[in-house]
Amino acid sequence: MTQPVINPPFWLLAELTYRCPLHCVFCYNPVNYDSIKNELDTDAWIRVMREARALGAAQIGFSGGEPLLRDDLDILVAEARRLGFYTNLITSGVGLNEKRIASLKQAGLDHIQLSFQDSTQEMNDFLSSTKTFELKKKVAALIKKYDYPMVMNVVLHRHNIPHIDKIIEMALDLSAEYLELANTQYYGWAMKNRQQLLPTREQLVAAEATVNAYREKIGKQCKLLFVVPDYFEERPKACMNGWGSIFLDIAPDGAALPCHNARELPGLNIPNVKEHSIQEIWYESQAFNFFRGDSWMQEPCRSCSEKEKDFGGCRCQAFLLTGDPAATDPVCAKSPNHHVVKLAIREAAAVANADTSKEFPLVFRTDSNSKRFAG
Ligand code: FES
């Protein structure tokens, strides 16, 4: 068994708020977000950033929800830059008018990642349950005007993956330098909608071929990143690059999480920055140490030659699919539970081939739906 070496966190994700003007069906936020109150105030966030930076964190992502809903965003960005962080805003674009982007630029914001739901207004607005498509295009122009690299993100699933060529064309029209085509990860709201969102294998194969053809055609004009959904892989992803390894997520209420979904896992005592320093949380807390190293692993992970590479996969996925957070991620073909992933693919394909919108209606991320899941 390997004793874990604990390196400092590298990447601090500041989930400033779970509030969001959009209602995306694939959102990874907790489904009961409505019951999670008491957002950290400006001073608390500043303390978190100072302590994380002092430990060695180098990059910060401001995310949510929609981080632009926080009036103090430019104050936080300015402090992050002063501390020496590389600063990244992850946004739907809603609320990013010219005055706001000018003030963020002045605060020293380094990078903006703008999400779209699709290349068509109809699907973009349907999936987010808002009328935001035209607004996002205006925001894309503002991002260019203020001299930022244009980084577009589109979460892919069964409903928009057939439009992948149009999505790439839209990115080229908007002069994007990077386009992240990230297949949905099945947590939070996306897990509730999995049967309606999981693409078919045929869709994936076709999409990957289209991406590769565009890579040939456009060269370095726009870098296309295509992330295959791990349900279709034979080996699990190295989730978070290993538990408590580089990633520190602070949720809006101050919960310190080794990954976005860790709050859902049984057996963890989730620490809060209102009660503990970042140093204590990172090095000493039960939650951050729980899945470090390999002593927690079961077979087949424990004796697997690949365990240093994938760390047994994703703990949250293992829990969601098997009920045991220490199980081998069922995405792995060596897992005794691999059949549950195969079954999910088969079931979703059956749904895709039938008109099932009534039997499996999409669950939108809304406050009232969240209340239903608050339990
Ligand atoms: Fe929690 Fe993968 S999302 S460990």
Biggest sheet strand line-up: 7-6-5-4-3-2-1-8-9
Distance between the termini: 39 Å
**Percent range of helical residues:** 25-40%
Spans of at least 5 consecutive residues whose pLDDT stays below 50 are none
Associated small molecules: FE2/S2 (inorganic) cluster
How confident is the prediction overall: mean pLDDT?
Answer: 93
Beta-strand content estimate: 5-15%
Q: Helix count?
A: 15
Rg from Cα: 20 Å
| Major β-sheet profile | 9 strands, mixed
Which word captures the global form?
globular
Instruction: Note the run of SSEs as H and E.
Output: EHEHEHEHHEHEHHHEEEHHHHHH
Give the tally of β-strands.
Answer: 9
Domain Radical SAM core: 6-221
Family: Belongs to the radical SAM superfamily. PqqE family.
Pfam families: Radical_SAM (PF04055), SPASM (PF13186)
GO molecular function: 4 iron, 4 sulfur cluster binding; cyclase activity; iron ion binding; oxidoreductase activity; S-adenosyl-L-methionine binding
Could you characterize the architecture of this molecule?
This protein has helices at 42-55, 73-83, 98-107, 121-128, 133-145, 164-173, 188-192, 194-197, 201-218, 278-284, 286-289, 307-310, 315-322, 338-352, 367-373; strands spanning 11-15, 59-63, 86-91, 111-116, 151-156, 178-183, 223-227, 247-250, 256-257. The longest helix has 18 residues, at 201-218. It has a 9-stranded mixed β-sheet, with helices on one face. Helix 1 (42-55) runs parallel beside helix 2 and helix 2 (73-83) packs parallel to helix 3 (98-107). The chain has 375 residues and is α/β, with parallel strands linked by helices. It has 15 helices and 9 strands. The protein binds FE2/S2 (inorganic) cluster. FE2/S2 (inorganic) cluster (FES) is lined by residues 239-240, 259-262, 314-316.
